[in-house]
Amino acid sequence: MSKDDRDILEILKEELDFVEKGGYGRSVRTPWQATSIFQDSPTCLCYPTHQHEDECLLMKCVPPDQREARVPCHLIPLNERGETIEMLDRTGDQERLEETVKAWLRRRIKEIEAERAGQVA
Question: What's this model's pTM, rounded to 2 decimal places?
Answer without folding.
Answer: 0.75
